[in-house]
Amino acid sequence: METKDLPHPSEIQRDFEAFMQQKYGGHVRFVVHEAKMEAPRSERPSPSASKDDPKSYDFQFHFLPKDLKEHLDRFVVQQNEAKKALAIAVCDHYNHVMECIHSPSEAEMEFSKQNVLMLGPTGVGKTYLVRLIAELIGVPFVKADATRFSETGYVGANVDDLVRDLVTQAQGDLHLAQYGIIYLDEVDKLAGVGTTGTKDVSGRGVQFGLLKLMEETEVNLRGGNDISSQIQSLMEFQKKGSVEPQLINTRHILFIVSGAFHGLEEIIARRLHRRTIGISASPTSQSEVSELLSLSQTEDFIKFGFEPEFVGRLPVRIVCEKLVANDLYHILKDSESSLIQQYKRAFRSYGIDLAFSDRALKLIATRASLEKTGARALMTVLEKVLRDFKYELPSSSIRKLRVTEGLVNHPERALRKLLGARRIFRRQ
Ligand SMILES: Nc1ncnc2c1ncn2[C@@H]1O[C@H](COP(=O)(O)OP(=O)(O)OP(=O)(O)O)[C@@H](O)[C@H]1O
Ligand SMILES: [Mg+2]
User: Fold this and answer.
1) How far is the CA of 128 from the centre of ligand 1 (A)?
2) What is the pLDDT of residues 352-407, one digit of tens each?
3) What CATH number is associated with residue 365?
4) Which mutation among 116, 128, 361 tests ligand 1's pocket best, with the greatest number of atoms within 8 A of CB?
5) pLDDT at residue 196 above 80?
6) 292 and 260 in contact (C-beta within 8 Å)?
């Protein structure tokens, strides 16, 4: 069979799906790994790959910790210690990667991987920080919830999926994928002692499952059971007469895990209390909690319910702090790509010019801080205040909306007043 006439895998998949649907109706579901469905790598831009010859791929990393921190400062409010620590860890990791690439003998040398453990409450920028760094340095980034593994209690295939997802994010570029960042959220749920007082067995199993991946192992990208992988293998078999395993080594993948770790501060306080006089055993204020978390040690995580081998592979510990109302105000006002810009764009697409008074921003921030979900609450508050405006104004002749303190306090009244003043609705 002439392989050059074969259509793109996505076309084969489409035809195959149509055939299966016709035969079995809507009972058949397809799971697709996008990476293998996309255009050939040579047709896609890759941050540092040579355009002429994608095989002459050369990973580049030239950043200094301060460069990374300055970049993060543009988008992320507060979290200065976290930004610094993350910048250093990322630079150490990728400088080592560069050494390994350019003088492979280095690869033989003893090097402890600087996987990162991030602690902190919800919505304070943990994922955002890592995503921003990955975007800046041009490496693929995959985020997953650790609970996805503990639910099944089986880690093998799912862990491989994370690496496959990296290839997807790298748009099929296997070289780039091996320098990616895998971010595992809610990792604290893998630890802990169950309500019965016994250790959570599935969480423990997941921790052990992740050990190899975090250090070094090879993941076969052809291992997928999805149709797309099978079709790709089939096509390769037709072309070459054999299917070569496509392996990705996880040695250079940076693992960052994060969680809120509720209760860890009390474990730390108890430990310190034993040794120091004057620290309360049950911390109350948030600054006290953050300070305690920054003093966390491996033994605290073990008491929390982690396996020593697991925590040991996460040597860099980073604490993100709670955001107060003033921080939320600065997020709205000063951070690049803030929600305010997003809302302005949304209104602009209807031809409406949206503006906020400073006092309105402060009030929104104060309201959001009461929700205790960090910066995420800003969206909740804005959505509540502006929803009806977003619904009504596009069909009205109003082309300007200024959000004031009064509007935030009484959105319905403000909308009624606005619409009452201009009764000229556009009619179809
Ligand atoms: N310090 C911050 N500065 C600017 N924006 C922030 C900050 N923290 C959070 N945000 C905004 O809130 C969103 C949610 O934050 P993020 O996903 O980083 O939370 P998180 O700390 O990972 O929370 P969780 O533990 O629930 O996953 C971000 O996409 C960002 O827009
Ligand atoms: Mg997160």
Assistant:
1) 5
2) 999 999 999 999 999 999 998 999 999 999 999 999 999 999 999 989 999 999 99
3) 1.10.8.60
4) 128
5) no
6) no
Number of structural domains found in the chain: 2
Q: Does a structural domain hold residue 427?
A: no
Distance 129 CA to ligand 2 centre (A): 9
Task: State whether residue 284 is helix, strand or coil.
Answer: coil
Asked whether 305 lines ligand 1 (CB < 6 A), one says: no
Question: Around Cβ 402, how many Cβ atoms within 10 Å?
Answer: 12
According to DSSP, the β-strands at 247-249 and 218-220 are antiparallel
Q: Are 307 and 330 contained in the same domain? A: no
DSSP conformation letters of 138-199: T--EEEEETHHHHHHT--HHHHHHHHHHHHHHTTT-HHHHTT-EEEEE-GGGGSSB-TTSSB
Q: Which atom of ligand 1 is nearest to the CA of 339?
A: 31
* Ligand found nearest the CA of 131: 1
Q: Exposed, middle or buried: residue 138 (CB in 10 Å: 0-12, 13-18, 19+)?
A: middle
Across 270-301, b (16+ Cβ under 10 Å) vs e yields ebbeeeeeebeeebeeeeebbbbbbebeeebb
- How far apart CA 283 and CA 306 sit, in angstroms, is 22
Q: Is 421 helix (H, G, I), strand (E, B) or coil?
A: helix
Q: Which atom of ligand 1 is nearest to the CA of 128?
A: 18
Q: Say which ligand is closest to the CA of 126.
A: 1
Whether residue 164 is found in the same domain as residue 297: yes
- Residues 98, 147: one domain? yes
185 Cβ closer than 6 Å to some ligand 1 atom: yes
Task: Encode pLDDT of 22-43 as tens digits.
Answer: 766 655 555 444 433 333 333 3
Smallest CA separation from ligand 1 atom 5, residue:
76
Q: Could you tell me if residue 428 is inside a domain?
A: no
Residue whose tokens read 């709670």: 322
Domain with 147 in it: what CATH number?
3.40.50.300
125 pocket-lining for ligand 1 (C-beta < 6 Å): yes
CA of 120 to the centre of ligand 2 (A): 10
Q: Which among 86, 80, 82 has a CA at the least distance from the CA of 68?
A: 86
118 lines ligand 1 (CB under 6 A): no
Both tokens of 419, joined, read 């619409």
Give the global pTM: 0.78
Mutate to test the pocket of ligand 1, among 77, 119, 124, 339 (most ligand atoms within 8 A of CB): 124
Range of the domain at 356: 325-421
| Ligand minimally distant from the alpha carbon of residue 376 | 1
